[in-house]
Description:
Elements: H1 2-7, H2 10-29, H3 33-46, H4 49-60, H5 66-91, H6 94-97
Amino acid sequence: GVFSDRFGRQLPLRISMLSVAVISVAFGASDDFWWSVALRLCQGLMNSTFIVSKVAISEVCHPDHTARAMGMVFSMWGGALIAGPAAAGLLSHPERLYPSLFAPTSV
């Protein structure tokens, strides 16, 4: 909103992506329920990537192509929601699934 109008689109996108990455790692490492809830709340508050992306698309694209570009963003978002958990499932307990790559005591 106001922040991206004042500082441009690139800075809010970078701050948002970095904060989501850091908070996601902290969420994955947390071992307390309430700490996990607090981290997810912070992640939701800091995730302005989608909003800023939509504004940038509407500013950059020709009006005839805006709907198609928005559709691409939504489809990539949906694909990431499927591919992310699938990759996490494939990488859970790698010492059992891929014993030639990971030592039993490495994880």
